[in-house]
Amino acid sequence: MIELFPEGFEEIERADGVELVAYTDPGGEERMWRAFGDTSGRDVAEGWEERWREFHRPIRVGDVWIGQPWQAPPRGAIPVVIDPGRAFGTGAHPTTRLCLELLAQLPGGSTLDVGCGSGVLAITAAKLGFGPVTAVDIDERAVEMTRRNADANGVSLSVHAADALVSDLPDADVAIMNVTRDVVEASAPRLRCRNLIASGYVIAEPTALTGYRHVKRRAESGWAADLFAR
What we know:
This protein is an alpha/beta fold. It is 22% helix and 29% strand.
C-alpha cells in the first residue's frame, strides 16, 4: 500500500482484521486491483480529503494541552500546538504522555531531546520553563518540522540534525529519548546528563541501563517510560 499510495492511505480496524482504504481515482483503483485482486470501490462523500483530521485528538497532561492547529485549547491550559506533518510525534501516543508526566516531576534546567520528531517534547519542555532546550534528530524532515512547530508555539529551541550514536551532543540537566530501546541502550552511555527520561518501548523491556540508576517507571497501554539518574 505504501508503494501504491505514497501520499497516504487509511487503516480501519474491523472485527475480522484491518481494512486498508485508499482515496484515489480509477487509475489507483486499477493499481490496487492488480496488486491484491480482491478489492472493492465506491464513491465517497464530499469532504473526504479532510477525514484524516478526525484521527487526531488533543490530549491533556497536567496543565499542558497538546493539540493540532485546527483545535482550540481550553482556557487556562498551557497550549502546545503541533502540526502532524510527516514527522512522528503529535503527542497522542502513550509514550509521549508518559515522558511528559516524568518531565513534569523534575526541576527546570537545560534539556536535550534526542530523536525530536515533530518537537512535541522539546516544545513542551520549553513551555514548562526548562531551558535552554536543544532538539536533535537524524531525519532532516523532523528537524525542519520541529523548527516550524517551535516558531508556531513562540518558543526558542536549538534544533539541528545529529546522530546520537556518533555526534557530540551538549551537556544537559535532563535528556529525553522517546525512541527504540536499542537506540536508548546504545546512545545513553554517550550522553552527559543528570537525568534521563527514556521511552519508546514496551513494559517487557528491562529497567537497567548502563551507567544509570533506575528511579521510577510509568506505564500505559503496554508501553513504558523510565526515569534514570547518572
